[in-house]
Write a structure and sequence with these properties.
Layout lengths: L10 H35 L2 E13 L11 E8 L3 E12 L3 H4 L1 E12 L2 E12 L5 E11 L7 E11 L2 E12 L1
Antiparallel strand pairs: 1-2, 1-8, 2-3, 3-4, 4-5, 5-6, 6-7, 7-8
Length: about 180
């Protein structure tokens, strides 16, 4: 039987110590790696969300824009969301009170063209067809292109739109994977 040396200059003893040291660290290192990987994966799975607050300057589009109801509009957004907007009306519904109030409900598809991609929304709008043309709307983000691929979120907007021009304020949140 071979005697175990206690000589620190014995190369075999140093190797054994190193092997034992590595073996004792193997489990904690693997656990730390697994924890880091799990936390990183969870961080990547979280959507990125950004608050939106922008002014929108609006102008009516040509009635030949491809809208089923002959209503299109464009806009310029300035603020936390910047770009050019193009709205195509898909529906217009008078209510039982429209004769008294002059208010109609509109729906449409909107594309906001930004430098990072296009943001797509489905809009539901309540519009006063008399006076200053006050409006309020809820825009549901349904996707996009570029960084907005798979985007979600909601915006609300209020403002005025009469005689082919107007402005509003858009507030909400957009999230993307």
């Amino acid at each position: 039987m071979k005697a175990i040396s206690n000589d620190p200059n014995d190369p075999k003893e140093g190797i054994m110590i190193r092997n034992r040291s590595f073996a004792s660290l193997r489990r904690p290192l693997l656990a730390a790696f697994a924890l880091t990987f799990t936390v990183s994966a969870a961080a990547w799975a979280e959507p990125h969300c950004r608050a939106v607050h922008s002014r929108v300057d609006l102008a009516a589009g040509a009635p030949t824009c491809g809208s089923a109801i002959g209503l299109c509009a464009g806009g310029t957004l300035r603020g936390t969301l910047q770009g050019e907007s193009s709205f195509i009306g898909t529906g217009s519904v008078p209510t039982v009170d429209t004769g008294t109030t002059g208010v109609v409900v509109l729906t449409g598809d909107n594309t906001i063209h930004t430098r990072d991609g296009d943001l797509l929304t489905k809009d539901a709008i309540v519009l006063a067809t008399t006076g200053d043309g006050e409006f309020a709307e809820v825009d549901t983000v349904v996707g996009g292109t570029g960084v907005y691929e798979g985007a979600s979120g909601k915006f609300t907007a209020t403002g005025t739109f009469a005689n082919g021009t107007g402005f509003g304020v858009l507030v909400g949140e957009v999230c993307w994977p």
